[in-house]
Design brief:
It is built from one helix and ten strands, in the order E-E-E-H-E-E-E-E-E-E-E. With about 130 residues, the protein is mainly beta.
């Protein structure tokens, strides 16, 4: 199974081979502040991810534990990567349609914005999970 995706301006494109993890919704303060809302992300092994235009990515150290990769031209957030991990999270909205993905649960719900409710029936975790 191969899926493709990329940034808004098309400068950074990627392809993944193999099965993507179900989408997880993260409501932590960092995700909300850096995206303007919550994050919807899937994940894949690094060996299954191929990036075209990788030199046009900027990596921001969001914390001492992880970094976020975004297009330095249009600002699209594409990736999240934990330090020392062999996996990369991919922002679900950056995938080309159809994704075939489904959401599994919400994490860091204790930090969610006060302007929305979690009423989709998915499991909700106050912290990581």
């Amino acid at each position: 199974m191969m899926k493709t995706g990329g940034c808004h301006c098309g400068t950074v494109r990627y392809s993944v081979t193999g099965a993507l993890r179900d989408v997880i919704y993260c409501h932590c303060t960092q995700c909300r502040k850096q995206t303007g809302h919550f994050v919807a992300a899937t994940r894949i092994l690094d060996d299954a991810l191929s990036i075209t235009g990788a030199d046009e990515l900027t990596w921001y150290a969001a914390s001492s534990d992880a970094k976020r990769g975004f297009c330095r031209h249009c600002g699209s957030l594409l990736f999240w990567k934990a330090e020392g991990s062999d996996m990369t999270s991919i922002m679900a909205g950056s995938l080309d349609l159809p994704t075939g993905l489904t959401a599994s649960h919400h994490i860091f719900a204790a930090d969610k914005g006060d302007y929305y409710e979690l009423a989709d029936g998915l499991p909700v975790f106050e912290g990581r999970d």
